[in-house]
Write a structure and sequence with these properties.
Helix 1 runs antiparallel to helix 2, helix 5 crosses helix 6 and helix 5 crosses helix 8. It is built from eight helices and four strands. Helix content is about 60%, strand content about 10%. The model has no long low-confidence stretch (mean pLDDT about 85). It has a four-stranded mixed beta sheet. The chain has two domains: about 70 residues, no CATH class; about 120 residues, 60s Ribosomal Protein L30, Chain: A, CATH 3.30.1330. The protein is an alpha+beta fold and about 220 residues long.
Length: about 220
């Protein structure tokens, strides 16, 4: 008991100096619940509160950094796993056709009377066109692209940008549509929205049919 009493008074002194419950528990070899019970009535000076606040903040920063590192490692792990799956699926032309159809079902025209795919993400546009070209017999001359731009965009510059992304020559671009813009809000690095048309109604129906069938076959309601 005398040893426990000694720890009790040491705990109070440490607390009055601004040590945290966790620190005191570690220094004296008692449980945090015991330390908390001993120190619940201890009044803290402004200096002690300041020290405790800084310690807690530092602990929170370390904890947040550790969580972020664990999260980043998990992201890398799942990304690598995704790459393996993508390489495996990429060898099957039927899989690519389904992926293409699902992308179109999400972002393309739903009527089935015409082919139209619209998005502002250059990466998604590039992937969709690659899947389309590898999965279906495509006549490159049937492509037309209409850009939806803001008034601060340069038509020439954005047509060049999207031509490089899509591998479709500028001569197959329709005159861009310019959205009114006050100029107060400028989206930095926003490339505009690309509307891709392909004049083949049968292809649109086929892609929509594949997408709809896949969703329905896997339990979706269409």
């Amino acid at each position: 008991m005398p040893r426990l009493t000694e720890k009790f008074f040491k705990a109070k002194k440490l607390r009055q100096r601004g040590f945290s419950i966790k620190e005191i528990s570690g220094k004296l070899g008692v449980s945090q619940s015991t330390a908390s019970l001993w120190l619940r009535d201890v009044s803290l000076s402004a200096k002690a509160i300041d020290r405790l606040g800084k310690r807690v903040s530092q602990g929170q920063l370390v904890s947040a950094r550790n969580r972020k590192e664990r999260s980043e490692k998990l992201k890398e792990k799942y990304f690598d796993r995704g790459l393996e799956l993508s390489r495996f699926c990429g060898k099957d032309r039927h899989c690519l056709k389904i992926f293409c159809a699902l992308l179109y079902y999400c972002e393309g025209a739903k009527s089935g009377d015409y082919f139209q795919f619209t998005n502002s993400d250059p990466g998604l546009i590039r992937v969709f066109l690659r899947l389309l070209r590898e999965s279906f017999p495509i006549n490159e001359l049937k492509f037309r692209i209409s850009l939806h731009l803001h008034s601060y965009h340069s038509n020439r510059k954005q047509i060049k940008f999207w031509s490089d992304i899509t591998n479709i020559p500028p001569k197959q671009f329709i005159k861009p549509y310019k959205k009114p813009n006050s100029g107060k809000r400028v989206k930095e690095n926003y490339p505009g929205c690309a509307n891709i048309k392909y004049y083949d109604a049968n292809l649109a129906k086929e892609i929509l049919g594949i997408g709809k069938a896949f969703i329905q076959a896997h339990g979706g309601v269409v």
